Amino acid sequence: MEYSPIIHSLHVVPSSHVKNKLFVFCIMLSLWVYMIYCCVGYCSTVPNLTYGSVNRRENHAEVDNQGSSLGASRDLLNNENELDSRGDEWDEIRGEAKALDDNAMSGSLNESESKKLPQAIIIGVKKGGTRALLEFLRLHPDIRAVGAEPHFFDRNYDKGLEWYRELMPKSSEGQLTMEKTPSYYVTKEVPARIYAMSKDTKLIVVVRDPVTRAISDYTQTRSKKPDIPSFESLTLKNTSAGLIDTTWSAVQIGMYAKHLERWLQYFPMEQLLFVSGERLITDPAGEMARVQDFLGLRRVVTEKHFHFNPAKGFPCLKRPEGNSRPHCLGKTKGRTHPNIDPEVVQRLRDFYKPFNFKFYQMTGHDFGWD
């Protein structure tokens, strides 16, 4: 066959161009595959980071929204909100969340941990010092306590025990689960309901001079409702007669002996501990020793955990192993009790005397309010 240079060029030259194009295409394809691989590897980490940051933003937003309802108080023992105590408890929940984060960072999740119904409950009283006591107890490594007040036995009982259990923090074997809701002490149905849950439940009541407690209660209410009547008019049924109005809740709560009779129908005195709200200020370590003994715990929370702040007039918490500044309860304390007519105060003291005396006899302890 005759050799044709034209045909030769058609076969050879195009073949060289195709090889070059294939070579370039392979290089580009390799680069694209590598880039896609890198992008996929990077993006796989993004959802976790985003999820965590979103959760943190949501949690902080929730805390801030709840925190907007926080009340200020000059008094360490002003600590519960009558209408919705959850708003007053979010500082505690922040602490609880931090503790959970610390536990998570210290190691893998302990699978033996589970949510348990509380074995001990702070049942009262409002304006007695329950917030302070709960904060002190949360320093103990063997106590796990929910921060906000569940109000299960007085407001949410129809939701059932499983709903209640889910509110509790996880705890391991040997740890004590606790909660506090100060309105339990004065609610008629609660003793029977707690007994039905567990007749072995340990009950703690923080009590305070009932006159001071009533004034503190009124002060908090007035801070939210400035147009309410005066303390004097609410305390007395008839100003001229000077009779105490026992239908007013601020007066009713301080009739401690009357409420205690109802609890003793279900629980023996050995299962109730009455803590002095005044001594939580003057001798927090001493009261905490009593509480830890009552709960069957080691005396871990001692004098080294407290620092008395003379400017604020009450003890602040500190962690003895750290160099951080003491943590004082209530960042916006400052409520000042109104000036109450001394005659009305004396009438109220006279009214409470027989109740106090009976309470001293029932508990075997003179709280020195008279």
TrEMBL record:
InterPro entries: NST/OST (IPR037359), P-loop_NTPase (IPR027417), Sulfotransferase_dom (IPR000863). Keywords: Disulfide bond, Glycoprotein, Golgi apparatus, Membrane, Signal-anchor, Transferase, Transmembrane, Transmembrane helix. SUPFAM superfamilies: P-loop containing nucleoside triphosphate hydrolases (SSF52540). One of its GO terms (molecular function) is [heparan sulfate]-glucosamine 3-sulfotransferase activity. GO terms for cellular component: Golgi membrane. It is found in: Endomembrane system; Golgi apparatus membrane. The chain crosses the membrane at residues 21-37. The active site is at K127 (for sulfotransferase activity). 3'-phosphoadenylyl sulfate binds at K127, G128, G129, T130, R131, R208, S216, K333, G334, R335, T336, H337. Belongs to the sulfotransferase 1 family. This is Sulfotransferase. It comes from Pundamilia nyererei. The gene is LOC102195908.
